[in-house]
Design goal:
Helices cover 12% and strands 63% of the residues. It has 330 residues and is mainly β. The strands form two sheets. A ten-stranded antiparallel β-barrel has the order 1-4-5-8-9-10-11-12-13-14. A four-stranded antiparallel beta sheet has the order 3-2-6-7. The two termini are 36 Å apart.
Length: 330
Amino acid sequence: MVAYRRVFRHACAAIAFFASANALLADAEGLLFSPTNYLSSSSSSRDLAFRNQLSWTNSVSLWADALYMTRVANTSQSLFVDTATGAELVSARNVNFPYALGYRLGGMLHQIIGPFDVEAEFMNVDSFSLSKDYSYPADATFSMMGTPTNLPAGNTLSMNYKSRIASPEVNLRFGFGDILGVFAGARMVELHELLDVNATSGRLADFNVDNHLYGGQIGADLQIPLGQLCIGGVVKAGLFGNQADVTVFTDAATYGDKKIRTAFVGQADVMAAYKLGESFWIRGGYQVMWLEGVATAEGQMFSYNVATQKPIMDGSMFYHGFFAGLEFTF
């Protein structure tokens, strides 16, 4: 399985390298892949700055974005409950990660297969980190692997949570006029989480969770030119096969197993690009990403069954935040 993931990543890198090499050959020898404009030949169209531009006569575009995103779990599971009254003290919705930095790299070969564009992109955010301490003057209970666990007054529960996500994709794109484009392709999503749960008395459990999502997606992009400025957006969605493996470490024993189920991944971006030179643009926007049918570390903490040892894969989460970067065309 690791070998397949490496091959997919290398394929994405090869497409980007091939794009750059093609541009250099074009400048040196005029050997472009005849990127004839099948849709429009107006100079105003060719000057638009989006990565999803339909009417460029240039053959290659490359972009790099900095991401600033947060991860939010879509669950209302109670984390702490007052033992005496039954009132919820803390919900999983209160455990939100601070914003973290990541990056996105991509390239597109324009009209390389007839009127079709080929795009490769890779995004990565590997620095989500959260540390929380919970202490209450009265006795409280919290859910630990499906069993209510008592936390005596004066005790403290500590959670150290780390999460990362990476996703390469390759798409084949076709444009309808100068405004709308549609695409379809293959995508992989790697989601890893590590949660350490400790009390004042010592370690309670450590949860190591990995999700490997492989599947296909479809999408569409829209762009609206406004002189040197271009605004628009991209939406994409797909069905995936998710193989998740979970390992739980406690002082008493170690548990773990794998499970496969269908998952969903959706994404929406709104963006703007401004032309700064003949082949140089600055761009920015906002991105939302939705995952459904994944195993999360907090989900295992709440509901993991040590008897079956199968991962709990009913997790739903959102990633959202800003991006800004540069784009070049050749």
